Amino acid sequence: MKCERCGFDNPDYLEYCQNCSAPLASKTEGKQGPSWGFVKAPTWADPDFSADTVSEDDVPADFVSEAEALRRAREEARIAREEARRAQEEAEAAKAAVEAEKAKLAAQAAAIKAAAEADRRAEEEKAQRAAEAAKARETEEAERRAAARRAEQQRLMDERRKAEEDAAAGNAKRSYRDYDDDDEGGEGLLTTIGGMFRRREKTERAERPEHTERAVRPAKPAPRRVQRPEKDDYRTYDRGSRSPVLSRAIKIAAIVAALAVLAVAAWLIIGKISSCNQAAKVPTVDTKEDMPGYYFVTVYGKEGDVLVYETPDGRRQEVTVDSKKHVVFKVPESSLMTVDPVESATYDAVPKIFVRAEDGTETQIENIPAITLSVPTIEVRWDNDDNIVSEDGSVTLSGHIDLIGTKLTVDGEDVVINQDGSFSHDLNYEEAGAHTIAVEGRLGGYQVYRHSFNVTVNEAHTTEALVQLPWEYGDTSFSQRVKNSVDTIEVRGQAPAGSDITVNCESSNAALSVPVVNDDGSFTFNVKMAYAGDYAISIICNTADGKVSERIIHVQRAPEYSTYLRGAWQMNYASFAYDSRQAYQIKGTVTEILEEGDYYLAMLELDSGDKLVIEYHPHYGSAGVIEVGKKYEALYGRPMGMNADGIPQAYIWFVED
């Protein structure tokens, strides 16, 4: 009787499945029995045999008593429960490991956040102190200028007051005097200037309206004149006119004030010129013995200018020029190196410093001396010699690199570098003879790495598909490569006549038989799988004419369907960062088919918005179909950890459309 749960064929006399212990359907299932009451027992005929007449030869070879079948079913149920318990323990251990890792990552994130917050507070305090210092300097400078202006004003007032006092003292001694240019010594500068002002004053007084009006009034007695017979030119001064000494003092004070104004203007102009000269000074670059690895760049500018230093990676530092008229930037050598790969062993770095105007525009300062830096090199440790000999046309380059992030290429193809710095790259040559492998490594701020290998190929490698599988040449009988009721599967294929076939598997849980190769090139071999899982089998074909070809085929031993589904957990995205055998129920929409061939690689978007790469091998008859744009409510599989792009990946066993 066939089990409705697992499909196992059981003897008709059993009530429980020998494979999964599920109750077997009765032959009378579906028939309507009595709804109530009792049924009279039928009268059975006496058996035509008894224990005395039956021998052991009459018992079927495959007969299993009901008690024995029940015992076997209980034993299988016990084993199943034990396996479920072990699976549960492994799942709980994996879950605990995931929770511990999550706690560790959370602690690291908190520490990073706290460090960033501390750095931010330190930068804010530093900026605040710098602003306060700049404000204090501006206040001090403003007070100094105000004090200088007050002192200058006081000096001018003192000189003016002294001049007025001197003039008043001269008026007290005499009310008028007659001056003769010749008698007073006309050759003196002050005397000449005073005479000029006196003549101008008399002319202005004569032209004033009050003098005109005074001329029509009754005449006053003429003032007494002092005549000098030896001179023809006499000058007469009115006693009521302004004292000539006072007039002279006022004129002198005016001249002194004018000279003071000229002196202040000259001082301002000279200061402006000096400031311009300061700004025009050429920047300098110096080092200090007690601070190796740093360069001190001195830039001159006007007080109040804002200077901006920019590193090659775009970071900026702003400083305001103070009364010293220059700024010194302390620049570490690491911030001067370019972010691009460098071809030569040295690099001439020129610091980028700008002057920011009030409108926000920036002008780069020129004539900053270049700084010659030594460019570090990329170190690669190779497992290969520089001269390589290949017998079959295939070459594998492997090694280790310390600088993670280096872009390494072999003959122009990118090489995948693992997290520990190790790498491996395969090359195949379809022509025998001498070849050269060119290797190049690039990393920002480092010298470009170049290396070459010399390869001698004795026999060419071919990429021709020499091995064909049954469904590729029309044999549809071998359409299933997944088994769950048995642990052994037979693999068949076709190769050119006379070929030699070898097979291997990296997993120690798979045992391979020696391939049987027929005269026409057809071959078979068995794969025995100890546990449920996916096994990659390498089939290597060596033809009679020296060609070599390798093909990878996947075979699977699937877990028991109902047991696997019952033990599946709900989706936990964080758990998929680690490789685990725990089953999960996954829901999501397929957004892209990444790879399609012997198996599928597809991008799945979960309901949470997270992305998951799924690997699915539809090798069994009732396999589901993966379609782009379709939402799947139930994909059952296990985590496989992160792929090369840092996206979690899952191996899917069962798909429910």
Could you estimate the helical fraction of the residues in percent? 25-40%
The helix/strand class is alpha+beta
Total strands? 31
What would you call the shape? elongated
The strand order across the widest sheet is 11-17-16-13-14
What's the average pLDDT? 78
Q: If you had to describe this structure to a student in words, what would you say it looks like?
A:
This protein has 657 residues and is an alpha+beta fold. It has helices at 66-173, 189-207, 209-215, 244-279, 561-566, and strands at residues 284-286, 294-300, 306-310, 316-320, 326-332, 346-349, 352-356, 362-364, 371-374, 380-382, 387-390, 394-401, 407-410, 413-414, 422-428, 433-442, 449-457, 482-483, 488-494, 500-505, 510-512, 516-517, 522-529, 533-542, 548-557, 569-570, 584-596, 600-606, 611-616, 631-642, 648-656. It has a 5-stranded mixed sheet, with no helix packed on it. A 5-stranded mixed beta barrel has the order 27-28-29-31-30. A 4-stranded antiparallel sheet has the order 4-3-7-8, with no helix packed on it. The longest helix is centred in the N-terminal third of the chain and has 108 residues, at 66-173. The model is unreliable at 27-41, 174-190, 209-220, 226-241 and 272-280 (pLDDT under 50).
In short:
It is built from five helices and 31 strands.
